[in-house]
Write a structure and sequence with these properties.
Number of helices: 13
Order of helices and strands: HHHHHHHHHHHHH
Shape: globular
Distance between the termini: 29 Å
Strand content: under 5%
Length: 361
């Protein structure tokens, strides 16, 4: 009897490892897909030749392949665990989210091909792109929650790897509804300029706060994780949005200086565990949003404040002409959204603790 129990334990443990590996592969895949997409947007703005085997596409396709392998592991391990469970548990909602997201990501490819065949070049916001980015966001959330559900303490690197694709995919979704990159010969999906500014001013600070504070909370506020997540986001921005445009390379030191408020918030959360510190940290990171979303955010605010033609070589000049005026206008709403992002994480964390305590009784 003990032998069979031991065998059952090994099978369940093995399935747990497969499930964990599957979620990691989904997160990595979504991260690569998001990086490739960001790089591809920059190449389009620079009018670089578009080919199927362009480097950004290779990164995106590699990410999609990783995510597909991941969901096969998640599906297999989830179904096997459900079948072997005495309670006959169904597949978890985390697994369903991860699988649904990857299916949406893969399904967007033939839809995008059909859209190009019918209408030629498409803008940033189009039905195929919306499905693709939605799938990345949904799948990334499912993978992060699956990883968090499967262990008491995730390693710092895994927290960053799992949080980044959520942050990048959500940023891409906000870009769709704030950047003026969606007008084509057949459709004009560009948001009204004022609406684009409102969306960016509200959504970006909230997202930064939620992702960075969420990373710290997942790590139980140990120092370094919030800074690692912020540094990784900034590094991706440098590699995909700044370095490809040679005119922006001199502004790299300015862009990476956004790590300063991030590290300050990290230290605050580490050495002061009060709820007030949590909200203050949310404010600190959120008011840096106009730096963290440079250079693309120049296009959004230029539509309202400057109304200039933004050539790739002119982005830095236009950005630095408007930064002081923008900061004065957006500081209060961005701080408020930073508090809201931190509050959401705080409420979610407390609810999870209550559920766990009730489950363990």
């Amino acid at each position: 009897m003990n032998y069979f129990r031991h065998q059952e334990y090994r099978e369940v443990y093995g399935l747990g490892r497969k499930l964990f590996a599957g979620y990691v592969l989904v997160s990595l895949g979504m991260l690569l897909a998001a990086v490739g997409g960001s790089w591809d947007i920059t190449n389009h703005l620079l009018n670089k030749p578009e080919t199927f085997f362009a480097p950004p596409h290779a990164v995106l396709y590699s990410g999609a392949a990783s995510a597909v392998v991941g969901i096969f592991l998640v599906f297999y391990a989830s179904r096997s665990r459900a079948a072997s469970s005495a309670a006959g548990r169904m597949m978890t909602w985390q697994a369903k989210l991860a699988i649904s997201g990857v299916v949406m990501l893969i399904s967007a490819a033939p839809v995008d091909f059909g859209w190009h065949s019918a209408f030629g070049l498409d803008g940033l916001l189009s039905p195929p792109h919306f499905v693709l980015v939605s799938g990345m966001l949904i799948g990334s959330i499912g993978a992060l929650m699956g990883l968090a559900q499967g262990t008491k303490m995730l390693p710092s690197v895994l927290i960053v790897i799992a949080m980044l694709p959520i942050w990048l995919a959500a940023s891409g979704m906000i870009d769709m509804f704030s950047l003026p990159f969606s007008e084509t010969d057949y459709f004009n999906f560009n948001p009204p300029p004022t609406l684009g500014v409102i969306v960016a001013t509200i959504a970006f600070p909230f997202l930064i706060s939620a992702c960075l504070i969420g990373s710290s909370v997942l790590a139980r506020k140990r120092f370094g994780v919030l800074s690692m997540a912020g540094a990784a986001f900034i590094t991706i921005g440098v590699l995909t949005s700044i370095i490809p445009n040679s005119a922006l390379i001199p502004t790299v030191p300015f862009y990476i200086s956004a790590i300063i408020p991030i590290m300050a918030a990290d230290a605050l959360l580490t050495f002061s565990r009060s709820r007030f510190s949590l909200y203050t940290a949310g404010i600190i990171v959120s008011i840096a949003f106009f730096m963290m979303y440079y250079p693309l955010i120049t296009y959004t605010y230029n539509e309202v404040l400057e109304s200039k033609v933004v050539w790739p070589s002119m982005i830095a000049q236009i950005y630095f002409e408007m930064i002081q005026n923008v900061f004065v206008v957006v500081s209060i709403p961005s701080a408020a959204m930073g508090v809201l992002g931190a509050l959401l994480i705080d409420i979610f964390t407390r609810n999870r603790r209550t559920e766990a305590a009730a489950y363990n009784k």
